[in-house]
Give the backbone structure.
Amino acid sequence: MSRQAERNVRKPTPAPASAKSARPRRPRVPWRLRIAAWRDQHFHGLFSSLGRLAARPWATALTVLVLGFALALPLLFFLVYDNARELSGGLREAREVTVFLKPALDANSADALAGELRQRADVAAVLVRTPEQGLAEFRQLSGFAEALDALQGNPLPSVLVVTPRAVADMDNPALIGELKADARVDLVQYDAAWRRRLSDILHFGERVVAVIAALLALATLLVIGNTVRMDVQARSEEISVMQLIGASDGFVRRPFLYSGLWYGLLGSVLALAIVAAVEIALAEPVGRLLDSYAHRFSLHGIGVFAASSVVAFSALLGWLGAFFATARHLAAGQPQ
């Protein structure tokens, strides 16, 4: 054999290009199948967690009762505050100055004084109420129509309702001082200090409701977190097996997150039912109280938007409580 033939025999033959491309590749899953698998996993976690809650009805009922009462208290405080705010809204926002004229002044003198006040730069409007209008309003609102019929004449004076031009003029000392010094004026009624005090009371009530709601929301978060933590402890061996076979943290955490979600939803529904029961129980005495005021005020319950917000916020609290309860377990890789 010649040297050239020897070199040809010893030289390794290169692998064909088809052999390099024959390596196994991971099959690409279409995005539609990925979305379908993600959806199926979440639906399975959602309903399997509900089944686990139904499997232990007494423990679930006690937890939901605690959550329902904890969420109902801030709702009741909010309803009381909201109705009080609307009830006093007209008094708190009213800027009018009520001027009672001397009883001896006739309608022409009242119109003349009203014209003078309308020419002032710090006065937006002046409304003249005659004694006849005042007596008719008093007859309608007081309920003493028969006693008023026994009067020989009309003892009420003419009244001017003066509206300052801007909110900053509510405490205008010049306008109030000139009205009090006018010889045609008998009394000036302007309760600015009382309205400011009412505003301060309402602001304080708003802050109290916010603090109570925050504290009870934190209590709800802790109750759900502790309940889910005990569930994690009870299933620690199952979680360890799932982690050994390669289950991701999201797969392990998902049923516990949905358990917290169900706790929040059920607790909020119970809280709304408690609020509705309280409204029904108080409907009759509140109706009698409003009848005594000739239905000048109307109370309202919790609306659809507020109820939906409570349900969504409670579900979020349950989700967060379950997330915090499972985070440390998954990070440590062992039961709490």
The mean pLDDT is 78. The chain has two domains: 42-90+196-332, 103-183. The first helix runs from residue 3 to 10.
